[in-house]
Amino acid sequence: MRLPLAVPAARRALRLALGLTLAAVVGVSAMPTPATAAPAATGPAAHAASAPRPADQAKPASIGGPAIGAKANRVGVNAVGIDLCAQVAYAAGFRNNPLVTAVAVAMAESSCNPSAVGSNGPTAGCPNGSLDRGLWQINNCYHPTVNDTCAYNSQCNANAAYSISSGGSNWQPWSTYNNGAYAAYLSAAQAAVARLGGTGDPPAVTGTILANPSLNIRTGPGTTYGIAGSVAYGATVRIACYTFGEYVSGGYWPSSTWDRITNPATGVTGYVADTWVNTTYDVKTMVGRC
Description:
The chain is an alpha+beta fold. The protein is 23% helix and 20% strand.
């Protein structure tokens, strides 16, 4: 969760100050919603949002060669370039050799620039031309369910690539795979994957607790789940992933997003309402879905 202030430091200071006047009321004034609830199609990236249909897996993902243009950067994540591709590909679900291939394909397609865009002339089924968009250059004509908001969002683009490639088992939809251009990036991709860490985990994403005096850590994404522990106001926690659960109307940014966190001080892992966690960017652009 983030507040719409221009300067991250000012936003953090304001929100931490506001926390002194608010109680940790997660579990109060909340209306339960199904755990499968998802944001609107125009919202931030999510596995369930703007995802390709199964029939789309047989269609081209990209048509042209490497992208040479760029849209305005729309994402905020804690890595850039090839390391960004490795991070979001891992979060999307790619593992082992398919993870390395995914990163190499993205480098060949977009140089791992999330704003990259390539323009194509008329092709079969797309008489008016089309655009290849984002890290994995997802084509807007052959994959219309991947809207622009998703395509230019690093994690959502990676999620779409995971779906189109059948979990990394089929790279035929990508032109740079078919022409072999991706192979030139395999060594660099392997190095980027290695930098994810000895356990294969992406770099840590952290947030600051805003509930005063403390926030309950639940065993699931809602206040009907048991309490695994708690974390104090102002503490820094590690965020592994996010999911959707009970709608929380209190806090700073009412939503149904819940973060799976670990309290470094106690080692307790569980779920907290994202509305009570301050992150530099929207958590859904920083980590994958649980």
